[in-house]
Amino acid sequence: MDLQKLTGYIRRASEDFGMIGKGDRIAVGVSGGKDSLSLLMGLKKMSAFFPAEYGLEAITVSLGLKGEDYLPAERVCEQWGIPYGIVRTDIGEIVFESRREKNPCSLCSKMRKAALNKEAVRKGCNKVAYGHNRDDVIQTFFLSMFYEGRISTFSPVTYLDREKLYVIRPLVYAPESEILGFIRRNGIGVVESACPANGRTKREEIKDLIKDYRSVYKNFDAKVFGAIKRSRIDGWEREETDG
Fold it and tell me: pTM for the whole thing?
């Protein structure tokens, strides 16, 4: 996948779900991984021709974990001329040492999002963009079904009443494999995860399950994604076409 195709995915999602309006200032949550960096570059590229003018801020929430190195994210932001800031927290210590969470992902995610939202508001942003891709949509669907007993996944657009912020996910149409191909094809360095739980989560179990299903059922991802859109759950009712 090239930058033009990546931007196409982002533009389609933005238009289908009304993600971006004139004068928006969007805080992009940048972990430094393939998804957040691809989203950041795609949004920057799209800002040159999108009908509604908007601005960007790149924000990384540091968990305070040993081995964190956000230099690759800093380099991308410098190269693309995007304001970049790091919010230093002790989330890692709280989750893994103080509370010793057996399932740390949920608490960690809530605390990271809270820190990101607070910084976004401080910087005058009215929207926060997450780098969730199409695979994440499908995985969350199965996580909700198997572990919570409900048919659900996250919305393309969510309004946070307390913070007065919109959360947007412009990569929901982009398959993870194509994002990875974009990163590799362009030789873009990514931030390696320093999380102690990396690779040992419920989401990883679901990824393995989906991998097995793909080997049995043709076009598995497209069919599940299409079913999610046609089910009109969690804000997906604004969708008009399959992809």
Answer: 0.91
